[in-house]
Amino acid sequence: MSINKEGSSPPAPVPRIPGFSRAASTIYNLKYALIDNTSPLAVMTKSQALQSNLDVDYVICYRFAKTDKTKAIAQFEKLCETLANVGLQTEVRNGDAHSVLLFVRVASDEHLYGEVYRSRVRDWVHGVRAAAPPKETKSALESEPLYEAERLRIIYQLITNPTYEGGAGITPKEGEWKGVESIFALHDHAYNKDWIKKWTSSYFLKTEDLDDIRNRLGEKIAFYFAFTQSYFTFLMFPAAFGFASWLLLGYFSPIYGLGCAVWCTVFTEYWRHQETDLAIRWGVRNVSKIDIRHRSFEPEKTITDPVTGEKVGFFASSKRFQRQLLQIPFALTVVACLGTVIATCFGIEVFISEVYNGPLKSVLVFIPTGILTTVNPILITILTQFATRLNQFENYDTQAAYDTALTRKIFVMNFILSYLGIFLTAFVYVPFGTLIVPYLDIFNVAVRPFAEDEKQLHHTNTSWSINPDRLRKQVIYFTVTAQLVNLGMELVVPYLKRRGFAWFKQMQSDRAAKNGGAPAASANDPPEDAAFLERVRKEAELDVYDVTADLREMVLQFGYLSLFSVVWPLTAVSFLINDWVELRADAMKICVEMQRPTPWRADTIGPWLDSLSFLTWLGSLTTSALVYMFYNTNKGPDGSPSNIQLWALLLTVFFAEHLFIILRLTVRHVISKIDSPGLQKERRERFMVRKQYFEENLSALKKLPTLSGSGGEINRKNLEEEARESSLRTSTPESRFWGRQRGWKETAAVAKNLIERAQNETTPQVKKEL
Amino acid sequence: MSINKEGSSPPAPVPRIPGFSRAASTIYNLKYALIDNTSPLAVMTKSQALQSNLDVDYVICYRFAKTDKTKAIAQFEKLCETLANVGLQTEVRNGDAHSVLLFVRVASDEHLYGEVYRSRVRDWVHGVRAAAPPKETKSALESEPLYEAERLRIIYQLITNPTYEGGAGITPKEGEWKGVESIFALHDHAYNKDWIKKWTSSYFLKTEDLDDIRNRLGEKIAFYFAFTQSYFTFLMFPAAFGFASWLLLGYFSPIYGLGCAVWCTVFTEYWRHQETDLAIRWGVRNVSKIDIRHRSFEPEKTITDPVTGEKVGFFASSKRFQRQLLQIPFALTVVACLGTVIATCFGIEVFISEVYNGPLKSVLVFIPTGILTTVNPILITILTQFATRLNQFENYDTQAAYDTALTRKIFVMNFILSYLGIFLTAFVYVPFGTLIVPYLDIFNVAVRPFAEDEKQLHHTNTSWSINPDRLRKQVIYFTVTAQLVNLGMELVVPYLKRRGFAWFKQMQSDRAAKNGGAPAASANDPPEDAAFLERVRKEAELDVYDVTADLREMVLQFGYLSLFSVVWPLTAVSFLINDWVELRADAMKICVEMQRPTPWRADTIGPWLDSLSFLTWLGSLTTSALVYMFYNTNKGPDGSPSNIQLWALLLTVFFAEHLFIILRLTVRHVISKIDSPGLQKERRERFMVRKQYFEENLSALKKLPTLSGSGGEINRKNLEEEARESSLRTSTPESRFWGRQRGWKETAAVAKNLIERAQNETTPQVKKEL
Prior knowledge:
Largest interface: A-B, 125 and 124 residues
Distance between the termini of chain A: 76 Å
Radius of gyration of chain A: 35 Å
Oligomer: homodimer
């Protein structure tokens, strides 16, 4: 495991990979050279510009292209005033065409500390921290210094939080603040360079490396890296086991299938456990339980909150539930749209490769891939918009509920997009192939122009049989080729986009200069800030990093492993290599291709964990079905459904599923018994707090005599005596009953008498009976 | 629902059932007359003896029959001293043969209040209460008065808790305190009589009635009654729906099956929700999370607790897990033992009723019932002992873990005992009947003595077909006859036992008196206490009430409904009637047949909830399988397995199971959205505490200037100025960068300039391009 125990020995020297590290460093420098290459003036201070952020906390990019001049000026003035009102100092500089850059920093550290303290008290009250921070702000900050991500988060919240929560209420791209295009912090290039260098030169990441990410980029991004690193480490088992099965057991081995299912279950449950541990380590446990009101929540009416007594917006759950039911038609639409495209392409491909017999076959076979790569992204964009609108229509009141619902919808779309093709091959094409292929003739419209005669367009060969390699090829495509392409796209596309954009702008400004038109934005920069401003203008143009997209990628990759890796046991080997690079490439992407992300907090990877569980469960079904269908022949049924014993297939699946359920319960039980440093730390903290409260509250009681204390003979006697006497004074049946024996010694004496008599009485009786 | 919302309208007049109520009252009086019937002397003060408990809190029954006289006396002296040490006053009286009765009461109320306060602080620290009790003990008790169950629980804990927790450490029947036979409180007969009268005269119980139970008998028992009442209320739906199906749809209706599955799911999930609500209402939420060390826990070694730093006993979870694996052979043994007995009896019964053809058939057919009723209780006793030992061997460190594990084991045994017979009929006899029945000839040994010739012992009729009514008859037997018998047994057996015991003792003492031997225990009683002591002696002989046995009964009953009610839709009607009586009979049992139970706390019905979930899930399998097999013919397959389409059966079950999983998720989601008074109350309390903490902690901060406060023009300006000046003093790149604009107004002015210029520049450029 990558997560070391706390307080372990000092980090062991990590094996270095000098080649890779040097290459990555070069790439990093090169990329930055490219960023700066449009400003020959700035070359002198380039390295300096990369070194320092000039105390800037945030940059606000204000665009006024579409706004009326006077309005824009008034609104900007208001922006400055609002920011000044919450204690932020501002400086304005010229931005790129039709924008200005507003630099923001906290006016005084003491004021920031007040905000930090308030945030920490809020955390404590919501159960994120076990103990309240010390009442002295100074000592609170000394005992637990502010880390960079916390600082940036608090300032960001100061800028964006609504005014009633003490923020400035700036909402980028929304409402009144439509002109505010983005709010971003500046990259810390010195750190970034170190980060990339360190990661590219070590095989494994350690918990300290993740701590570093958390301190710089916040817990949400750190959780992504922690998850990927855990997943990477776990992958070594299926990679080794898969390689061995591939050598020894061949494809569709039930042993591999079982091993893979166990691994998926253990990994999912382990991560669930690990997540808690990390959340405690980073002090963010229960952060997801702090309700943040969703910005676009539209209350139905205003009610008085029965809990807080405040007026709050209310939207009936029942009404929301009715709206949520729209998810069913939405899901059906998604299945229909994407399904049609995928099935059509699948049909065309099968038709061309297995029926069509004319010229250009080797070229035409790429038609479906072409359709998929053009139509699908368009469809996905449309459907995602639809999903977002539906999600907004469902009108969630908290940000967390909104995000969860949206993530689920996106998962459904991606699930279909990623796996439907393989499902079609495995469960439609292979078992029903011979029934279906003749109908594929309808796809001859796609290739009719190329055919020389009708015969080439029809299924003539009567001895046609399904292609047993199709399934494997498809799995290999998705788990190797597609992953590589994806990785490449992630790094190359934004780079090309940026290059193209820079080129376009250069050309435009050249033309403008030629025409004596507008000078470059940098024309009026003070020479000593020029390089810095140039860099800021570049960063303003970068994309915003979306960590869920990366998480989604990992979860979908996990899906291939759990659902289909029995088809090709080397899957995990491919993923292992891919993910080693992916982790570094993502770090690189954040440093180079994206704006510095705002450091949000999180205590979990959220609904993706449910997705993992779901994929693991579904894997138990598909793996068992695949093993049953393909194990014997290694190529599966021959395409006609009559050869499959449906009852046996169902029995296999039924058995496998329930085995899986029992397995999961057992694994969960065992893992829950594992103690981790995080959980221990939490218990220790809670214990200390408890102890302190207990002592505080019971100190008052110490003055009172205790019942259980060793109050001493005299005290006790007095008490009994008192009780007895007070009973005797008022002669009730109770007082007479309790007044017979005076103190415990008398009770014992009476009992002695009774016991002795009882035994004496018995003895003769027994004798008599004998 | 029986649980009304808090603050609802005053209770509506409840329809009275005068007949039943009068009968119950009579029974109650009669029973008490019977208890007292052996003591003619006491008749005069009988009613008085039933009215008052003479301030007695607990009675300790000390038996010395098997102990050496001197030892017994010394130990009893120690007992009195130990009790006095924790502030309890004692009185001793003669008990029945070889026992003495030690009466115990708290010496002074003030001291008890100290204990109560300590207990409440402990609760708060463990998260059971939202707010700490007020520091003044008196005001704490005034604002939240002590209820009887709390008082009795605290005194019981004072007697039994180990000395290091401030108790007297008296452990009944264990170790040093083997002589302490029982510790019990005295019945409050006035209340009991009211209770029975009230319940027997109303159709429904209200939440207030349950509150009453909680105040008297503690939350654990109150939870049983609340559960049974909820279940009873819910039963009305399947009773009505079942009756309608029985009239309109007949047996094995898929519609009824679906309705029943939905009902079971809704009920289980509703109870999960309701349970939380009640726990909050009764202020016991999270009580189950307070760890109480299990008494017989044997640590492997002593370690220093990493959390508290104290020395504690430690037993490795891995070792416990190894021991838990013994549950598998244990479960197999249980299945084998009970399964063999049940299957054998089943075989014999089928053989006699369907193969055997000789004389005495109508009598012999009861042989299997005879075997079952004699062998099963013996087997169950042995297996329960086995289960308890295994459970002890598993060595749980907390009481809760121990109880959960034991409950699970007992559930497995009862599951087999209750349902295996029906499972055999439905899934073995019906589908495989014709294959199996010929082999039943081996059971002819059972009836050989009665047969007249060999022909009567063999399966001669070739056109034999299975008996389609067998399944229904069996279900009716279990859901009507067995329930009635059970109810009767619960009330009658203890009564007969007690009567027999009383008769035996009477006889013995008569004989002793005739022989001039030992006089009755009551011989030396002071006349005014005689009736009271007589009553106490009777109560000392009563059994200890075990609430889990009653809960188990209800859960198993629920099982018949979820698993097999599709066979006979009237099941719920029978249960509805049965449970109305059962609720009252259980109340009666607690009042009359049992010692007053020690009022324990609980915030759940514990592992039985898991059992309910499990039975609901299994019900989705059995119901769908039964519907598939029996729906068309109404008598199922004709006994040969070839007639069942296994694939169709499996497909049905597979489909039903997954439908059920989706249903459960939906129901859980919907129910989680229901707001309940309890949850609201909890949120309100937590909010108040939070608010208070927040105010306390932030009051210190108010003195500090805030960033977000409307600090006013001057303050803000000063701040910015200061920052600017301090920057200028030391001329770093940062200070020069931030020093250019002086306050937000300058920033706005510069921006105005930039914006105006930008727009001016653009305008001509655009024109040029046009």
